[in-house]
Amino acid sequence: MNISTPRWWYRRDRKYGVLPRLLLRPVSWIWATATARRMARTVPHDPGVPVISIGNLTVGGSGKTPVALALLERLKARGVAAHALSRGYGGKLEGPVQVDPGLHTAGDVGDEPLMLAQVAPAWIARDRAAGADAAVAGGAETLVLDDAHQNPTLAKTLSLVIVDGETRDDEWPFGDGAVFPSGPMREPLATGLARADAVVILMPADLKVPDPELAATFGDLPVLLARLEPAAPPPAGPQMGFAGIAKPWKVERSLKAAGCDLVDFAPFADHAAYSEGELQALAERAAVFDAGLVTTEKDWVRLPPDWRARVTAWPVRARFEDATALDALLARACGG
Q: Model pTM?
């Protein structure tokens, strides 16, 4: 069952969510210990090609998929046969299987692999080592791992940690630093950063620079800035928005910042599988305002085919501010 992200997770002030923070703290200790043991006991598999990991330190909402798409496009432009590899969260297939957007649905392979397959060959596999070997056999010269910073199965050539640069309204990407479920962290901050080769701070389109305190958090690690920008303007006219991602309030904020006439917005849990009743309710609410329906690309690929014609997908892309620094990292990872 998908659970909506508690907004208090991203508050550093512990006056928010006092009781759940306290009650869930023992479970957090168990989670952190189990993660550390799994990382320590696993012997990584070398698939024989460079492996670029795109991950984060929190349970969601940092923008890994737009960054993975940007890297796949960058590698393709460099003439590198890069394939994406994902666990396929939310899909029923175990893999290894190459994603076919004309055949597979989000229910088969998950929403993120369907997006990645739009720009490069994409594979899903519960067993990442088996998935890597299948991709290499299928022609991959480099692997781009989606959401794999806490997965030690593969030997990584380059590990990028994506960090949400949104710090307005008392938000902080790591909350008070507590590990799931009493906070958003998958592991303690220092532990996760110790395995990173570089950090990508993903900024909202309407924030010019990252918070200096946030930028200083990463010490001597290289920090790249990327900006989440609309790939197209929002649809014209009144719109009813909805999103089922880790931080749905960011979609609402971004639509408004992009000039969308947003009359209402409905948040859903991350990776929500929209029922016919939920979609009908959204359509009825939109009709009250004589409005259209708009959502993210990630949500749109999870919609039933007959609903896709009734809902506009609003695409966003990650643009790196220093493309030269990114190219240097990729060149070192891919051997020049």
A: 0.90
